[in-house]
Amino acid sequence: MRTMRSVVADTLGEPSEVLRLQTRPLPEPGPGQVRIRVAAVPVHASDLHTIRGRYGFTPEFPTVPGIESVGVIDELGSGTDGLTVGQRVITIGVTGTWQEYVVADAGRVLPVPAGMSDSTAAQILANPLTAVILTGDELDVRQGEWLLQTAAGSTVGQSVIQLGVHVGFKTLNVVRRRSAVEEILALGGTAVICTEDEDLRERVADIAGPDGVSKAIDCVSGQVGADVSRALAPHGELVVYGALSTHRQTDPDKLTIPIFARSLIYETKTVRGFWLFRWFAETPQDRMVAAIDRTVRLADSGALRVPEGQPIPVEKFSEAVDLAEAPEHGGKPLLVFEP
């Protein structure tokens, strides 16, 4: 029996305690499916929070983490026209990718442009795609408009800045550390607010002027998310897509955004959530394909530049897990499966 290497979480818990490298049987593709020999998979913080039971879903355990991958098709099931053995592809909305081989429905894989690196391809369908959806389908940010965003130094934040340069909208970028300001400006950010020594609401008013900012995205939540909501102009829209401020919290009372009711009601603002997993599950096929295709084309053209990942052999997966949540860790840790 042929086998493969898989990183498996035996049970709910702290990743450093429950993850193991195991040998599992090689999966076989069924009708309408392909089997992919995985080259690289990113280790996201959301993967680790899923293992801890602090994310939007809890899988059945034991489970193989992972939400993205790039690899090469090595076997086809019946009824998979248009795909070939040896073709390099990425998986779309497929979970359980931290293993040497993955089986996916043919409709859930996408060929990779010839010039795109494995590092970029492996990361393109979580953070860059989120940035494209938020600035496009969700908020329709237009040329000349302001977009206020938190965690501007994150991968999504950097992608949003690059989209602003490409489309022509202005980005008002919130960061925690003064040391991050120059990097954001060098990337093309229009203006930066540093909460280390600046008041967010005051600076939004100073920078955006009397018309203010009507569109914002937030992945911090907590008090920062609430401050962003209050800083918006009347009729403003805030889309919340993450909760970085709550990731180490276990007290349910701390998992909040303390929205100021008077601002929300009397200025008729909108605050709503966005979660990529739900988008994959509920978005009509034509809209999903269009957003993914645009993201891939932007990355292939260089308009969206995904920071180079840090390849780590799967045997050293614990190093990748530690790196994923280390402060200022640099490029995304990528598990690679060497023969």
From TrEMBL:
GO MF annotations, alphabetized: NADPH binding; oxidoreductase activity, acting on NAD(P)H
InterPro entries with a match to the protein in the record: ADH-like_C (IPR013149), ADH-like_N (IPR013154), ER (IPR020843), GroES-like_sf (IPR011032), NAD(P)-bd_dom_sf (IPR036291)
What's the superkingdom here?
Bacteria
Domain Enoyl reductase (ER) spans what residues? 14-335
Q: Name one Pfam family in it.
A: ADH_zinc_N
Does the record's keyword annotation contain 4Fe-4S? no
Matching entries from PANTHER family are given as: QUINONE OXIDOREDUCTASE PIG3-RELATED, ZN2+-BINDING DEHYDROGENASE
Q: What is this protein called?
A: NADPH2:quinone reductase
Q: Which organism is it from?
A: Rhodococcus jostii
